[in-house]
């Protein structure tokens, strides 16, 4: 290389579409409904074309470590709410796996006898605003 010569990166001329298509097909195959997954991945590609490789690799890594039922549920949620991000997909998966919906029943009990005390159900009397207005007018 001499001085003043133009240095060209040959990577820019390479056709990268074939490799991305293969990555999308492989990633979609990890889901129970590959056609739906492919549709969702195409939407991600349209939304983030510059970062599609990173998006696909994150989805792929997440999918390899997750049960198929959770994957499909999270993908369905992403499709219905128009979420086109691998990071959001990963967060949705984490929240659905770790926090199953639980219903808790609250019962008020007296710790000594185990019965509900009668005074717990008493409602206090309410004052009327007119009484307060009369008091304020007199002073």
Break the fold down into its secondary structure elements and pairings:
Elements (H helix, E strand, L loop, with lengths): L16 H12 L5 H14 L4 H13 L3 H13 L5 H13 L30 H10 L1
Helix pairs in contact: 1-2, 1-3, 3-5, 4-5
What features would you describe in this structure?
This protein has about 140 residues and is an all-alpha fold. It is about 55% helix and about 0% strand. The chain contains 6 helices and no strands. It is elongated. The N and C termini lie far apart (about 100 Å). The relative contact order is 0.09. The model has no long low-confidence stretch (mean pLDDT about 85).
Proportion of residues in β-strands: under 5%
Radius of gyration: 31 Å
- Unreliable segments (pLDDT under 50, ≥5 consecutive)? none
Helix content: 40-55%
Distance between the termini: 99 Å
Mind summarizing the main beta sheet?
none
The count of strands amounts to: 0
Name the shape in a single word.
elongated
Structural class: mainly alpha
Mean pLDDT: 84
Count of DSSP-assigned helices: 6
Give the ordered list of helices and strands.
HHHHHH
Give a short overview.
The longest helix is centred in the first third of the chain and has 14 residues, at 34-47. The protein has helices spanning 17-28, 34-47, 52-64, 68-80, 86-98, 129-138.
Features:
139 residues, mainly alpha, 54% helix, 0% strand
């Amino acid at each position: 290389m001499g001085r003043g010569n133009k240095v060209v990166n040959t990577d820019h001329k390479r056709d990268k579409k074939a490799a991305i298509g293969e990555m999308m097909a492989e990633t979609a195959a990890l889901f129970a409904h590959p056609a739906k997954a492919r549709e969702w991945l195409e939407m991600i590609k349209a939304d983030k074309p510059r970062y599609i490789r990173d998006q696909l690799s994150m989805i792929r890594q997440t999918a390899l470590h997750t049960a198929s039922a959770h994957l499909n549920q999270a993908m369905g949620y992403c499709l219905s709410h128009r979420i086109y991000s691998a990071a959001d997909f990963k967060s949705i998966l984490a929240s659905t796996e770790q926090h199953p919906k639980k219903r808790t029943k609250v019962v008020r009990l007296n710790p000594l006898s185990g019965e509900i005390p009668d005074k717990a159900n008493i409602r206090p009397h309410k004052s009327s605003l007119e009484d307060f207005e009369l008091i304020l007018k007199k002073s």
